[in-house]
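Per reviewer request, we include the raw input and output of the structure prediction for the construct analysed in the revised manuscript.
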Amino acid sequence: MDKYRKSAVPIVLFLLPAFLIYTILEVVPIIQTFYFSFYEWNGIGGVALKFVGIENFTDLMGFKGFWLSIKNVIWFLILSLFTQIPIGFFLAILLSTYCKGYRIFKAAFFSPLVLSTTAVGLMWYFILFPGTGVLNTILTSIGMENFTTSWLTDKNTALNSLILITAWISSGYYLTIGFAAISSIPDEIMEAGLIDGADGIKKVFYITLPLIWESVKISVILVITGILKIFEIVFVMTQGGPNGLTEVPVSLMYNEAFKYGHYGRGSAIAVIVFLMSVFITIISLKLMQRKSYDE
């Protein structure tokens, strides 16, 4: 027993700095956000806080801009789940099966993720710029000028353009997760599957996917948490416009708290985003739960 107690002391000492940093940078701000959501405050130090109870939350229930941002982020989330993960894992399966120079392709697909989001957003902004943007110029040069449009200001294309750009940025991340999971599958299992006739698409659905299902679940959670807090690409490319058509809760929170000085309302939006993340994550895990053979 003394041996375990002695070994526990250095373990605690080594973990303490990371625990303190996590508490200060993550736990404390969450608690403060819940606290400020019940007050009216303009965010300026020295100005008194006014307790308003749940008024910030009730005001949001009647705020059309808030419900539009919720609608946008749900659509953003649905399309992202059906683009980022399928594209990433499909590429992972291709690279692990048919490609010898997979390291080059992995680096190429992963590179958008390591670039600055601001730089990527500006690059795509100039590509999709109305009139003289790269995409419209190419379409015009090949005789498809009827397909040119103001991609980031047209209500039919603005939000979907951001979704596709986000998929372009993030798919490489899920490619890496999928490739690592596929690489961990023993060769004996694959060979046994081939002997039993599981080749091509059958191998993917009956061998590969069941064995990497935990990685798929992790990827789903990462997409959910990432999309619900998405901000940078929206802020850089559209700033929530036109007329709030690309507004998402976090960009709305930023505008309310720091642009308009409604810090309490901004905190209330942050609380709702936090609770949405927890709720949708739990529901997703329940839906993706697989029964074990022992049950």
